[in-house]
């Protein structure tokens, strides 16, 4: 398996869990995501984007990194370009670091939808800010290694059919969920969390560092 970490411009907190996920990952920075490299102790093999969110001093400070420059007027975000560059270099697994928060809510939303689209192409994707993690949910079943008490939500990006959740404070069994429903917000892990889905697309968003909280 060839894991690539994509450094994005959102929020980041370095945690042991994130360090473990990164492991021996190869690294590509997307524009201002280069700022996370030093905090994570990583050296990108490629820096890609239009470079409109970094300073001349930052560019000079990373002169040894290969750069792929694009015009600001383009049809893809810097993060999307970075993901496609990783695929072209043989990525079979992606970690999108700094995928949440930041100055642009539209970019954070697009990172989630892009992760789902990549998963539909057969590429496993983890989104992380260190504090929060996101994983696409498509038809099928998958398990998660979150500790007990982890707060998680399932965000539907379409109507969902046959949603089953076990290993949770509020389990579900073969539930159909309308798009926009809040039924799957603020659940808690209780043991071995497993999620299966018959139809639809969604994202599981978890906070492994958080303490248990009440649904409400």
UniProtKB/TrEMBL annotation:
Protein name listed in UniProt: Thiamine diphosphokinase
Origin superkingdom: Bacteria
Protein's organism: Aquibium carbonis
Coiled coil segments of this chain: none
Pfam family, one: TPK_catalytic
Top-level class of the enzyme under EC nomenclature: transferase
SUPFAM superfamilies according to UniProt: Thiamin pyrophosphokinase, catalytic domain (SSF63999), Thiamin pyrophosphokinase, substrate-binding domain (SSF63862)
Domain Thiamin pyrophosphokinase thiamin-binding: 134-203
EC number: 2.7.6.2
An example Gene Ontology biological process: thiamine metabolic process
Gene3D superfamilies assigned to the protein according to its UniProt record, in alphabetical order: Thiamin pyrophosphokinase, catalytic domain
PANTHER family: THIAMINE PYROPHOSPHOKINASE
GO molecular function: ATP binding; kinase activity; thiamine binding; thiamine diphosphokinase activity
Keyword terms, alphabetized: ATP-binding, Kinase, Nucleotide-binding, Transferase
């Amino acid at each position: 398996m060839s894991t690539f970490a994509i450094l994005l411009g959102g929020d980041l907190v370095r945690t042991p869990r994130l360090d473990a996920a990164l492991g021996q990952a190869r690294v590509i920075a997307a524009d201002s995501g280069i700022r996370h490299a030093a905090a994570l102790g990583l050296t990108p093999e490629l820096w890609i984007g239009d470079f409109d969110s970094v300073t001349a001093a930052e560019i000079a400070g990373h002169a040894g990194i290969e750069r792929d420059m694009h015009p600001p007027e383009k049809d893809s975000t810097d993060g999307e370009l970075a993901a496609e560059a990783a695929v072209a270099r043989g990525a079979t697994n992606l970690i999108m670091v700094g995928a949440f928060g930041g100055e642009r809510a539209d970019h954070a939303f697009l990172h989630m939808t892009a992760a789902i689209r990549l998963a539909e192409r057969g590429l496993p994707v983890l989104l992380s800010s260190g504090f929060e993690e996101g994983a696409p949910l498509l038809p099928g079943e998958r398990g998660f290694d979150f500790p007990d008490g982890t707060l998680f939500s399932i965000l539907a990006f379409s109507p969902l059919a046959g949603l089953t959740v076990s290993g949770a404070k509020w389990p579900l069994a073969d539930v159909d969920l309308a798009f926009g429903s809040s039924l799957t917000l603020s659940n808690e892990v209780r043991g071995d969390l497993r999620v299966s889905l018959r139809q639809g697309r969604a994202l599981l968003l978890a906070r492994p560092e958080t303490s248990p909280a009440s649904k409400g």
